[in-house]
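Tutorial, part two.
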Amino acid sequence: CFGFPLSIFFIVINEFCERFSYYGMKAVLILYFKYFLHWEDNFATAIYHTFVALCYLTPILGAIIADSWLGKFKTIVYLSIVYTIGQAVLSVGSVNDLTDHNRDGSPDNVALHIALSMIGLILIALGTGGIKPCVSAFGGDQFEDDQEKQRSTFFSLFYLSINAGSLLSTIVTPNLRATECGIHTKQRCYPLAFGVPAILMAVALVVFIIGSKMYKKVKPQGNIMLQVSKCVGFAIKNRFRHRSKEFPKREHWLDWASEKYDKQLIAQTKMVLKVLFLYIPLPMFWALFDQQGSRWTLQATSMNGDFGILVQPDQMQIVNPILIVIMVPVVDSLVYPLIKKCKINFTPLKKMTVGMFLASMAFVAAALVQVQIDKTYPVFPAAGHTQVRLINLGVAPATVQFQPQLQSVDVAPNEATGYMTFETSKLQSLHITSLSLNKTESLKLLEGQRYTLAFKWGLQHIRSNLTLDNVTSKPEEGKSLVRFINNYPFPVNVTMDDMAFGVLSPLSVSNYSAFQNKKGSFIIRASMPLGTCTVLSKKFGFGSAYTISVDDCTNYRLNVTYYEDIAPNTVHMAWQIPQYFLLTCGEVVFSVTGLEFSYSQAPSNMKSVLQAGWLLTVAVGNIIVLIVAGASTLNKQWAEYVLFAALLLVVCVIFAIMASFYTYVDPNEIEAQFSEEKKKDKKDQDDSEKEAEADSRM
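Running the prediction step on this input gives:
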């Protein structure tokens, strides 16, 4: 088909579906841990990075199975089945109604959901990691030796399918998660967000199997990684056996393997180990890079996602693949030629150093954004303290004294104070004075809680109502809280859209109700003996809490007053774009260059060893994050960002020093020398055999 083997189209479609499945599931994973399993941020981050680390450790296992035992085709099929089962198990584990027997909206057996989720993730890690080194190589096997141009085009299509799958899934699955579904109670739709990737993985498997008869299947030929490992192991063991001074030293410690392995394998292993040594500092880059899906997504949950359309926190990850598509051609066709024109020797290792520096600066930018976010967080009372706010619902000004003589506050009509903090044991009562009327309110307050005192001047007395707010944290997932207070002299039944707040007696306060913000307004409806009045609500900010006073009605239009209890998220998600830009620029000059450098310095038959080493650096980077997340005693998230930035900066300096001592080699030249030597040895051997044959005839 257009000069291509028809089989490769099945492989490209398979890769698109598999990448959609993986990135779609991964995009919503951290929020699933936080909001469904109710894990705190550090633990959720640790488990997330454990999973990612496992996904990058298993490719080594997959490569060994494919090259030494099953072959690429069978390995892809068997592990894809494992992968599909894992996605299905994870989707089932996220079904709230599975154990919600009392139908209260919360799972009754959280342990079962956790167990199913962990089993699903382990199977997914085995599947996605195991097939990772096989699919692209299997695609390359479909071409003949004279189809180099078509093979190159295939790899371009292959990586395009990866980016397309990643991009599309990062848009789709967060939107699926944001919808509400359920049999008994409506919850965030994690089953759908995980179910669609599971279906796509099943499609990927079916498509791959359909093309089975068209594939060229190369038999397993042994795994070079095992040969290298055995060579290194024998050299170390042999050197240990001959450690006494009576044995002469050898030029390189790997030369101790020469008794068992040929010179070419030893020389190639030396080249590989030389590159692998440079890999030692690289995990620190990945430790920062992979936090896009964990810490940065959690950061976005505390921000304003209104871009005209509502952007979910987990959708901000899409900035990275979009910028990759833009930045790769810009850097290759504009930045690098410009640097070359300035006669700057911008070697691959220097590019990688710059990439690490840019990633470090990305986390400095993330820390600056976090500082601004922290300023918007409400301060809740600590142990031994209580907070009280005042709302004057009357038409006359009032003065409130906190007894015994702690503080005196003036409150204007239809105004509210902020939350004032007091030592719980010292605050005994408060005295309200409005015009000629007085009232003393005795207080019995709980530690660590917030209270609202609503009061109103009347003709004969002051009426008041002290209410426990029962809110100890800012609303999460971009939701808002709202409650109503009845400022009428008779009972009122209040609703907001389909949320019922019940019948409120005069000056009584409803409980808070959480709701998801929408683009339009809500309809507030108050039913009373005189009739029903309505009004459209104001636009509530993300993460806000409001008390709404139902005041009066004019021509069936309800008059209400809004009192802000918790300020909305005022830092916009757009402020994350600079940190994504810096990190993506770092990725372009680090990751792309790193792979090119590795391949240019590796012998032709050793590229899979370096690929395994490269993937191993990603796994170790994620292990670093889970260690820091588990052991960190830093209370402020911005401080952790600064810590990671500082660590990468130090590693960047170390890598620059290591790189300055590296000598670039040409593996093809070295292999050509060995090839010439082999030809010469064979010629000498043939000549010797001819001479021996001639002598025997004589």
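The radius of gyration is 33 Å. In part three we will examine how such features are distributed along the chain.
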